[in-house]
Structures are given as C-alpha cells and as structure tokens.
Amino acid sequence: MEKTIFENYRLLIQNLPDGFAYHQIVLDEQGQPIDYLFLEVNPAFEELTGLKREKILGRRVTEVLPGIERSSFDWIGTYGQVALTGETMRFESFSEPLSRWFEVTAYSDRRGFFATIFRDITELKKTQERQQKLLDAIPYSVLLLNRERRILAQNKVTRDVAGSKVGDLCWFSFHGTETLSEEEREEFERTGVLPASARCIFCRADEALEKQQTIVEEVEIRGRVYETGWVPVDGETYLHYSIDITKYREMERTLRRERDRLREYLRIADIIFVVLNLQGEVVLINQKGAEILGYPQEEILGKNWFDFFIPERLRDKIRNVFQGVVAGEIEQFGYYENPILDRYGRERLIAWHNTLLKNEQGQIEEVIAAGLDITEARKMEEKLRYLSFHDSLTGLYNRAFLEEEFRRLDVARQLPLSVIMVDVNGLKLVNDTYGHQVGDLLLRSAARVLQIAVREEDIIARYGGDEFVILLPQTTYEMAQEIALRIQKTLERTRVCDVPLSLALGVATKTRKRESVAEVLRKAEDEMYRQKLAETRSTRSTIINTLLKTLEAKSQETKQHVLRMQEAGTALAQALGLPHSEVNRLKLAILLHDIGKITIPEEILKKPGPLTPSEWEMVKKHPEVGYRILLATPEFAQVAEEVYSHHERFDGTGYPRGLRGEEIPILARIIAVVDAYDAMRYGRSYKNPLEREEIIAEFRRNAGKQFDPKLADIFLVLFEQGAFD
C-alpha cells in the first residue's frame, strides 16, 4: 500500500515547529463530506491545540471538537474540497472551538486524505486589530506607505474618503491620473503598473525619506486645502497624513462674525486651540486643551501661557519668538513644535499651527494656535529609528548601522582604520543543548565582554547570527591586537550555565585610502576563521566535559557508574569478538549515553518516587536530545546513533523510535544490557539493589523482550564467571 506523506517524512514532520495533522475525509451516501478522522499529528499540533495525540487518533473531528460543524468557517467542506479535488488551499481562519486564529495550508497526497500544516497567529491578529483600531481612532486621513507609494495600512477615514485599499497607489487614490499622458494612462489601466515617469505633483515622500525628516506643508487640490505631512518610519516606509483645513482657512476670514459658532466647534474638536493676547495671556482654550493641561478651562483663562505652561528651559526662547512675531520683527511662524507642561509637571509634545488675528487696520490683536499632541507618535518614531540601527537581542548596533559607519569613516583622516571580527564559538552546540534562550544569553554575554574591553570611541555591531564586528578608527594593527588580547582576558572568567564563553577573533587594518573596507573586513574574517578552526575542537570538548560534570552533579550519572558500565560493556563486546575500534567506540558511547538528561530538571532526575506521566515524557526525550548534541559535535557524532537508540527494546516496545531486533545498533543493545545491570546491581534513587539470584532471574525473564537474547545469554555467563563484578 502506498505510504502516506506522514510515513515518508515522519522525522521531518515530528520536528516541525508548525502543527501538522493527517486526516481521512468522511463522506455521506451522496459522496458529500460530513466529517473527517484524525490519523496522525505531530508534537507541535498537540502544543498548539492542547489536544493529546492518544485521545484523538482514530476519532472524528465532530467528536474531538463538538460544534465545529456550526462554525462560521466551513472547516469540513473546505477540507473535503482539498481531499476530493487535490487542490491545495492556504487561508487564515478563526477556530471557534479552540478560540484561536490559525494560518493553514491544506493539501492532499491521495484522494480522500489530506494533511494540514498550521501555525497560531492569534497574537498577530490581536496586534493587527489593535493597530487598526489606533489608526481608525485618528479623525483624519492617515496611511502607511512604502517607497513605491503602495498602501501598507490605512485608517477608516482614508477608506471612506478615497475608496482605497491596502496595496493601492496612494497618489492615484487621492489625485487621479492628471500627470499621465493618454498613452500612459491606458497602459496603467491595462496593467495596473505605475509608469516610471509618473509622479504626484504634491508628494514629497522621497525628500522626507532621503533626509529622514518630517515634512509638513499645505496644498490645494481641487479647491480644497490640506495640511499634509510625510513622516519617515525607516528608510523604505513613511507615514502620510492629510487634514482638510479648508474650513480653518475660511474661518480666518470670518472669525469675528462667527465666533460663537467657532467656539462650539472648538469645544468638540480633538485638537488643542489656544488664543493668546499680545501679552501672552490665555484668552481662549478649548476643552481638548484643558484636558491635556489637566485644568478646568476657567482656571487657565487669564494665565500667562509662557509662565505657566512652557518648560523653564525653553520659556525665554519661546517668549522672545512670540514677542518678535506680534511686534512684526519676525515673520509669522506657521508650524512649530514645542513641549507644554501639565499641572503635574509632565511634558507633552505639541505640533502647533499658528496664525495672527488682525483688525480692519491690519493690526495684530491676538495669536491663534492649533496644536496636535504628537507625544506618542514622536516616541514611536524615535523607537522605530532606534530599532532600525540596533540589534534587538544585544542592544549593540546592527549591520545596517555598521555599513553606514564604514562609509562615513572611509576617509584618509581616519587611517589607520582597524577591524576586529568576532565569532562566538560553540553557539550551535549550546542552542542544541540548552535551547535558544541560553544561546541568546551567550550572545548577550559576548556583547557585554566586548563593551567592557573596547574603548569608548570604538563601534561594536552584531554582524550576523554569531558574529560581531568592532570598528576602530585611527587605530594601528598593533593597537587593535592589544584590544583583541584585552577581550580574550576579559572573557577568561565568563561562563553561561557553567559553559565557558569562547570567542574567535580576527584583526585587520586599512592603511591606504585605495584599500577597500570590504577587503579589510574579509582579511579580518579569514584570520578569525583560522583561529576558530584551531579552537573549535577544544571548545566543543570543553562544553561536552562541562555538560558531563553538570550531569554528574544533578543526577545518578557518576564516574563510577560510567566506569562500571564500560568494564561490563568491554567484557561483553570482547566476548562477542568485536574489533578493538568498536570496543573504543562503545566506551565513548557509554560515557555519553545519558548526556541528553542535561535538559531535565534535577528534581526529576533525583526523584525518589515514581514519575508523573508528564515527567516521564520529559525523561523519554533524553536520547533524542543527546543525539542532537552529539551530531553538533563532529568528534562525537560517530556514536550519536548508539546514544539515540540505547533505550530501544528488542521486542520493539522501547523509545524513542520503537526499533526492533537487529534494527537496533549492536552497541546500543550492549549499552541497554550493561545499563540495566548497573541499575539492578547498585540501585537508583527510586529502586533498591537486587540480589545476585534476582539479577539472573530478571535477565532471563526479559531476554527477547528488553534485551537481545543472545547478548543476555553471553552476559549471564560472564556475570556468573565474575568477569566484571
């Protein structure tokens, strides 16, 4: 019978970080899908759904998830289409029985069957919903766009006014195709691709992105006046907002005739409005302004704006500008940003648009300021700017920043320019052994060592996964070597989870202007790799030895236990006539056979009573963990398969793979015998030692079950002869 996709790729699927399930569709008499069965799932499926494999295999989904047939999304019908047509489907949907959002890929490897690969995107959906709610709360048009003017996100106002959607072109949505020739317009309408020559006559996004500065201006489009701004988020994306201020401009001309109407508008507006007299006293403030300042409106009226609501460090500067404007000595300022103080001493950053109210004779009577609270927007902008140049894990500069600094410092006056390339030794082994959280801690520790050892003016950046680069302007090769030596001395006593931190360093120096920075970096990298190759074996061996010492301290895996197993195993291997090389490999495998237990908590390893089911599942994973550790260590990879298989049983009921008979490597079968013997002879925290007769009886009872019967017979002969007791 043809194998299923799960059987063909079992190992891959079992280790997938995404959930995987294999199903058979159930049809009614008319051949319509009415249910489906669970045939197989991987561990990630159990973790993502909370459904245990042993409780769902062979059962229908309507039994496992009652009510799924009444969900808003037709799960059974959709999967039935996949199973019956062979069509692959990718979609996002909310699972009401599980109360989670999933991104799902469903496909069929044969008619009537289908597989799903999925991941939980609930938090992503919540984040997107929160972000969209924040955008939709803004009462004017706001869009997030890329350099090609494609809309990445927009708020409800934009959708309602412009009729645009994500993926559309911003300028087309707002300003039409007036800048295109008839031929270009026809081509654009046919293909949907914006011609290279097309430009919005109003857009200043490119300038804002190049300067990395916010640009705000007013434009008139089809008889409407807009205050529009371009706010860079990073080098490729920007925030564009557009506020229709046509009414504001009309109100400037009719302010005195419609003051009552204006005051009502100001009362409900979401923008701060402040009117100051020529002495800087507050004549009018709207409700929004009073809320931000934290006072009732009546308490603000009559107070001097600069004395009460401007931070002291800026008070004189802003007052002087104001006085210069009302005296006609300074040209009126239309846009201005400055912080204001609330009644609790907290600062809020406000973007002001100012105008002068004049009488019929053209004399200034009052100053009107409309302010938008941009405190949070500015914080977000600063955060995004920080993140664009820093590595989130270590806090160091990132590669993008380093490349900018290369260009900035690639001038004659910075010569000699030295570079130190740094690589963290053994990171993969630490990740495979302790997990990526400890690997991340190792990287952060390396970053801290570099920060301590280098000079204040030196630039440190995370260059790649386990690589750092230190840029040393005006530094000779000899000086750079001294800094490299200082780094090595600094890390001598640095350990993470008892694992010593080890770094490979390469130094190179640019001494002539015509040398390229890329070539200098390559030389440093070559030197670093030479050092890494020389130290890698030592580093891995040190880590393995550290793991063995740690394991000995937290479990029953003592040196005596290992030596006894090696003695008994050697006797058994020699009795079988195995070559000397295999005997040596057996000793190494015995030394490392339980190294995977390093990830198991000490309280479980030393627990005197029986283990709970969840604790036992954790213990059963240690052969696989040990296998991964040894595969990451070339000098020990030769015994990885034996370590992986040493808890398999001859009758196929062992773990982790359920191997049977001679499918189990011979050395793993020997380890199973001598490990069991040592546990019987010397006991464990949860088991007392057995008498000699009990040991013999136990081996005879389990020959052909737990043990290879041939090995068990030979072992008992040796045992009765006292070959290793």
TrEMBL record:
GGDEF domain location: 415-546
Every PAC domain range: 334-386
Annotated ranges, domain HD: 558-680
Keywords, in A-Z order: Nucleotidyltransferase, Transferase
- Top EC group: transferase
PANTHER family named in the record: CYCLIC DI-GMP PHOSPHODIESTERASE PA4108, CYCLIC DI-GMP PHOSPHODIESTERASE PA4108-RELATED
Q: Which residues form the HD-GYP domain?
A: 536-725
Q: Which SUPFAM superfamilies match?
A: HD-domain/PDEase-like, Nucleotide cyclase, PYP-like sensor domain (PAS domain)
Q: Which domain of life is it from?
A: Bacteria
The protein, known as: Diguanylate cyclase
Report the source organism. Answer: Thermatribacter velox
* GO MF entry, a single one: diguanylate cyclase activity
**Could you say which EC number(s) this protein's record lists?**
2.7.7.65
Which parts of the sequence belong to the PAS domain?
25-65, 258-329
